[in-house]
Every structure is written in C-alpha cells, then in structure tokens.
Amino acid sequence: MEIGIATKLSLAGLAALVVAGCSANAQPRPQASGGRQCFNARSVNSFHAVGDESVIITVGVNRYYQLDIVGTCPEIDWSLRVALRSTSGSSWVCEGLDAEFLVPSPSGLERCPVVGVHPLTPEVAKAAMARHR
Fold it and tell me: What is the pLDDT of residues 39-59, one digit of tens each?
C-alpha cells in the first residue's frame, strides 16, 4: 500500500505541530532580575541549617542555595524535617519573600520568612555545611 503525497505532507505537518507543542509546554527555569537563578520549591532535596538565620538547601543533584531568614528561626537548627513553601503564587523561588520555612516547634508551627536567596557553588556550600555540623 502506497501513501499519497498529500498524506505524507499531512503527517509531516502533524509531526511539526507535535514538536512545537512539546517545546511550547517546556518550562524554562526563570531568572530573577539581576541575573539571579531561580529554583522550584518542589525540587528541594535537603536542607542544612547554618545557625538560626540561614539555611543551605540542595536543589536537584548539584545546585545549592543559601536562604537567609528574617530575624531568627531557633527551631530550624534542631528540626529533622521542615517544609519550604513558596509564597510567590507559583512554585518558583527567585528572591527573598518568595518563600517561607515551616518548622515544627513545641509551641506549634513556626513560620520563618526567607529574605535572601543566594546561589552557591558546590564547593562553597559543602565548606559552609562542614563548618556548621
């Protein structure tokens, strides 16, 4: 059975639409103003408190960020589990006030707003975490 030229063109056009649709649905990582990198709060794998005023998080396999907390969050240094909740209306965190930590404490759930987001190299992040063990 031979396929006609019109059918071949229709199939080629359909393939082009499928490829275009896939690339249109891809969600590139947004960049904040000033060229800072953003991350998806759902992609955070681990956290390491470096005192009660900042936390280093691991995003994906090998991306690190230091998140500064407004004031202090005394229980974050002792907690085994925390949640990072985006407050920006999407799951992307690009800058301070885009997220908050939810930390269990003896008096209930403690909310610790993030006021600074700083990408770190793996070497700097690992050194900082080693200093705060």
Answer: 999 999 999 999 888 999 999
Model confidence pTM above 0.70 = yes
The 3-class secondary structure across the chain, one letter per residue, is CCCCHHHHHHHHHHHHHHHHHHHHHCCCCCECHHHCECEEHHHEEEEEECCCCEEEEEECCCEEEEEEECCCCHHHHCCCCCEEEECCCCCEECCCCCEEEEEEECCEEEEEEEEEEEEECHHHHHHHHHHCC
